[in-house]
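## Example pair
The file below holds two records. Each record gives the amino-acid sequence first, followed by its C-alpha cell line.
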Amino acid sequence: MAHRITWLETGHSFEAESDEAVLSAARRSDVPFAYDCRSGGCGTCRVRVVQGEVRYDDELPMGLSEEEAAAGQALLCQARACSDLVLSADPPDLGTPPQRLLARVDSVQPLCSDVTRLCLELPVDAGFSYRPGQYMNVHLPDGGHRSFSMASAPKGAVVDFHIRRIAGGRFTDGELAQLQPGDALEVELPLGSFCLRPQDYRPIVMLATGTGLAPLKAMLEALQGDPDCPPVSLYWGARTEADLYLHDEIAQWGEGLYEFNYVPVLSRAGDAWTGRRGHVQHAVVQDLAEQLGECAFYLCGSPAMIADAKKTLVAHGADAGFFYSDGFVFQRRDAPVTATSSPDITTTKPVVSATVGT
C-alpha cells in the first residue's frame, strides 16, 4: 500500500510503499532530504513527523533514542510509513554540489601508532568549497570507496585528514602506506550535512572519540577569530594517553576562541594519568549538569558513544532538538562493497563524515 509523503518546508510530495524506507522513496522521486549512512547510525536524515505515523522493522535505529522517537522525530533511512505523512526538516544548505576530481598527495605523516595525517592538494580551479564537518570519498580501483572527514577549515588548496589504520582495511592498511607526495587520488567532495549551526545561538559542547576529532577540529578552526563565537567545550575520548594524537596542539586552540574548554577523557588510562577517566558523555554530565538544557551538542565517533551520549544527556536535561552527530562504522577488506557514504569504511555518518576509512 502506498502512502503520500509531504515535506512541509518545501512542498515536495511523493509516494512511499509501506514496506520501503521513506528515504528510498524520496530518492526515487528526487526529493533532496539530507542523508549520509543510510544505516540508521548518523542521524543525518532526522525529521519531525508532524502528521501520521512511522514504524521500524525491528528496534529503533542506533541514531534515534526512545526519547527522540517519543518527541516525534524519525530517521527516514529506516522509517516505514504507516499512513500518509507530513514531515518537517530544514532544507539542506551544504554549499557547493559534490564534484569528482583528482587530488594530489601533499604529505603523509604519522600522528600516532595507528593514525596518519594525509594532506591532499585539490585543484585550485575546481571552483567549490566545503563546510567544516563535511567529508570526502576516496574512490578505490575496485569500484568501492572510503570516506574521511576534512580535518581543516577551508583555506587554500590543501586539506587535512586524520585516518585511522584498520587491520585488513583496503585503503588504510593497504594503499595509504604506499602513498607518496605527488601521487593522485580520485576523490569526491564535499559530502555530508554534519556542520555548524550558528543560528542556534547556544554554547557548543563537542564530544569525540578517536578520529571523530577530525571534523570537530575543522569546525573549531572555522570559529577562530569569529566575533560571534559562542563558548565551546571539547571532550575528546580515547583509550590511552598515547591515543591523544593532538593533545598538545589542542591546548593552544583556545587562543583564537572566545571561551574554550578542552577535556581529554581516557577509558583505559595508566597509573600516571592525572586527568579524567571513563567516557566523554559522563564527563560532560559531571561538568555541565546545570547547563545542558542551554547547549547545542556535536557528537562524532563511535555510534555506541553517540547513542549512549544522547540518551544520557537528554536524561539530564539536554534538548534533543540540538544534537548533531556523525558516527563512524568500519569495514574490513573482506566486507562487501556498499554504496553507503560514510567515513572510513562506512561512516554512519558522516557518518563522516567523517572519518575513518579502511
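Second record, same layout:
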Amino acid sequence: MNASYSELRARARESLRGNWGKAIGGFLLAILMAAVIGLINYLIPVLGNVISILISGAISLGLISFYLGIARKEDPPVSEVFSGFAQFIKAFCLYFMIGLFTFLWTLLFVIPGIIAAFRYSQAYFILRDNPDIGILEAINESKQIMKGNKWRYFVLQLTFIGWAILAAIPFGLGYLWLCPYISVTQAHFYDEVTGRHSPPTPDSF
C-alpha cells in the first residue's frame, strides 16, 4: 500500500528532527554557490552561463545525495552538497540529457514537457545509489519507476503550495526551512516508489 502524502511529509519531519540546522546549512551552501555564479554572470555574462551549465548537474546530484542521506538518517556532513563533483562528467551528462529530452517534449506542448520532467525526476537519485550506472540507464530506470507515479509526484508537490505561500512572508525567509523539507520529502518519495521506505510515523497533518 502506497504511503499517503501526509505520511511522506511525516517521515521527512522525523528525518529532519535534530537535523534542521544541517539541512538548512546545506541549502545555504547551494544558495551561496548560486550567488557566486550569479555574480560571475553579472560581470562576465558568457562565462557565468557556461559555468552554470557545467556545474548544475554536479550541484543537483550533491544536493540530492545530501538530502537523501538525511532522509535515511545516515548523518551526512554538510560537505555532502559538493559530493556531486566527484562524478562531475556523469552528473553533467545526466543534466544535459534530461534537459534535452525535456526540451524536445516541450516543443510538442507545455504539458508533455512537464510530464517529461516528472518522468526523469528520479534519475539523480538513481545515480546517487548506483554510481556505476550509465546515463541513459538512469533515465530509463527513472521512467520505469515513475510509471503510474507521475500523478502522485505531482500532487505531492501541490501539497506544499500553502506552505510556499506562508514561507514567502516575510521576505521569503521561510524557504530556508521549506526547501529542505520538500527535498527530504521527495527523498522519501523515491525510497517509497523503489521499495526502500521507512516505517510511517504518527506525526502527520
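Notes on the second record: Residues 5-193 form one domain. The CA atoms of residues 123 and 137 lie 9 Å apart.
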